[in-house]
Amino acid sequence: MLVIAFSFVALSRLEGRLFEISKALSNHPEFFNSVVYFGLININVVLILILCFLLIRNIVKLLVDRRHGVIGSRLTTKLVLALVFFALVPTGLLFYISTRFLTESFETWFSTRVEATMHRTREAGAMVYNRDQRRLQSLSRIALQRIQVYSLQAGDFGWNEINPQGLKGFGREYKVASIRVYDQDSNLIWHNEAKRPNEGSEKEKRFVVNAIQTFSSNRTMESRAIVDADDGVDVVRGVAPIVDPSTGVVRGVVVLEERFETQIL
User: Fold this and answer.
1) C-beta separation of 25 from 31 below 8 A
2) What tens digit of pLDDT does each residue of 88-140 get?
3) What HEC string does the chain produce?
4) What is the pLDDT of residues 130-159, one digit of tens each?
5) What pTM value is reported for the model?
6) What is the side-by-side order of every strand in the sheet holding 250-260?
7) What angle do CA 170, 216, 178 make, to 5 degrees?
8) Distance between CA atoms of 48 and 35, rounded to whole angstroms?
9) What ranges do the domains of the chain cover?
10) Which residues does 251 contact at the CB level (< 8 Å), separation at least 6?
11) Phi then psi dihedrals of residue 139, to 5 deg
């Protein structure tokens, strides 16, 4: 009686716990799906291992019987080989045909839609990048107003000094991720980023050199912007020349940059 009573209490408790678990899983369908998939995968693995064990066991038994000359072992071997052949060949052929059919069907059904979707995605991305190009090109000219260029003279020697300290807070004010100031020798003299390294990528260095050369050869150009792929992401850069007000010589550039964690262009 005690055993029956204890079993009844234990089963009642288990039933209550199962109800609570079921209710909890219903509130978290993602977890429930993960548990189901995990269970199905493990069941398949266990069944495959059992099948392999039985197959290897029977093959070993068949080889041992044939080696010991058991009556009917040769006939059994031929029957097993014939059954395996007639089981595997149609299955393999059916698997190959089904795979090819599904692959070609999916390519036929979805290739046009995927291409159209990708085309629309590129168009949408190009619109976003064009908007950011215009924005950064305009903001680069605004950033110039906060940069001061001093012409210093000491005897027969003269040099220019760029003071970019007025750009502090510019990124937060205008929501610009990266602001960098370079001198006329393409050396980085100021930036607003704490995480990125002081030296930019090779593409960024080439961009700065080309920008300085372009602005030096075309004094009427006030700013420009480009979209480029750099380090696996799309980058929009706006740049404006830092000009010596007394001589009109380009003394450096200010570069504004936005990075997108995709590469669709």
Assistant:
1) yes
2) 777 778 778 877 777 776 666 666 666 777 777 777 777 888 888 899 999 99
3) CHHHHHHHHHHHHHHHHHHHHHHHHHCCHHHHHHHHHHHHHHHHHHHHHHHHHHHHHHHHHHHHHHHCCCCCHHHHHHHHHHHHHHHHHHHHHHHHHHHHHHHHHHHHHHHHHHHHHHHHHHHHHHHHHHHHHHHHHHHHHHHHCCCEEEEEEECCEEEEEEECHHHCCHHHHHCCCEEEEEECCCCEEEECCCCCCCCCCHHHHHHHHHHHHHHHHCCCCCCEEEEEEECCEEEEEEEEEEECCCCCCEEEEEEEEEEECCCCC
4) 888 899 999 999 998 888 887 665 544 445
5) 0.55
6) 188-191, 178-183, 250-260, 233-243, 224-230
7) 25
8) 20
9) 133-260
10) 149, 160, 162, 183, 184, 242, 243, 244
11) -70, -30
**Are the C-beta atoms of 185 and 202 separated by less than 8 Å?**
no
Q: Identify which of 34, 33, 36 has the alpha carbon closest to the alpha carbon of residue 44.
A: 36
Residue 48's Cβ-count burial label (10 Å; 0-12, 13-18, 19+) is: exposed
Regarding beta strands 157-163 and 224-230, do their DSSP bridges make them parallel or antiparallel, or are they unpaired?
Answer: unpaired
- Which has the closest alpha carbon to 198: 176, 175, 177, 180? 180
Identify the residue whose tokens are 């050869």. 217
Q: Which two tokens stand for residue 254?
A: 């200010």
First to last CA, the chain: 78
- Provide the CATH topology of domain 133-260: Beta-Lactamase (3.30.450)
